[in-house]
Each structure stands twice: as C-alpha cells, then as structure tokens.
Amino acid sequence: MKAPARAHPLWLAFVLHRVSGLALALFLPAHFWVLAKAVTAPDQLDSFLQLTEQPMVKLAEFGLVFLLAVHLFGGLRLLALEWLPWSDTQKSLAAGAVGVAVLVSGTFFLNAI
C-alpha cells in the first residue's frame, strides 16, 4: 500500500511555500495602500510610520521577512525538483533552506530592534 502524500518529508515544505505565498499576496494590497499615502496624504504616512516603531510591528516585520525568505527558498526547491534528478539529500536541503530563512529574518529582526 502506498503511503499518503502527507507522510512525505517534503510535504511540509510544500505547505510552507503555499502558506507563505498566500500571506504575501494578502500583505501586498496593504503595502501598496501605505505607499500610496506617500503621494496622497504625507501626514497620514508620517503617523503610520510612527506606529511602525511599536515592538509588535517589529515582530510582524520579522514574520514578513521570514515569509519572503521561505517563499524564495521554496521556489528554488521547486525549480530544483523540476530540473534536477531526485536525491535523498533534497530533504536536507529543504531543511537547510528553512534554517537560512530563519537566519536571514532573524538578522533583519535584530537590526530592526
């Protein structure tokens, strides 16, 4: 009997890539709205930028950078799956990619606080 797809070691990498893509797609309209404030209402932008000094916003920025890094490395993983022959080391590479994403976003977070 064949094992379910969720038992595959890279299933979590697939889910993480999908969730990060969805979260980034939800973030983009808010980002564009804030950027529009720079042109249409600079005073509102200034008050919003003061809000970004709050610790929870800094933590959310860490999450955003983590999602960006995870999505980037997930996309590279997909390219590797399409172009390279399968090997057992791909599981280790996927885990390493998440580790690098944590390192990148953690470095950003430490510089932000």
TrEMBL record:
Broad class of where this protein is predominantly found: membrane
InterPro entries in the cross-refs: SdhC_prok (IPR039023), SQR/QFR_C/D (IPR034804), Succ_DH_cytb556 (IPR014314), SuccDH_FuR_B_TM-su (IPR000701)
Binding site for heme: H71
Alphabetized GO MF terms: electron transfer activity; metal ion binding
NCBIfam families with a match to the protein in the record: succ_dehyd_cytB (TIGR02970)
Subunit structure: Part of an enzyme complex containing four subunits: a flavoprotein, an iron-sulfur protein, plus two membrane-anchoring proteins, SdhC and SdhD. The complex can form homotrimers.
Family the UniProt entry places it in: Belongs to the cytochrome b560 family.
Protein name: Succinate dehydrogenase cytochrome b556 subunit
Organism the protein comes from: Roseovarius bejariae
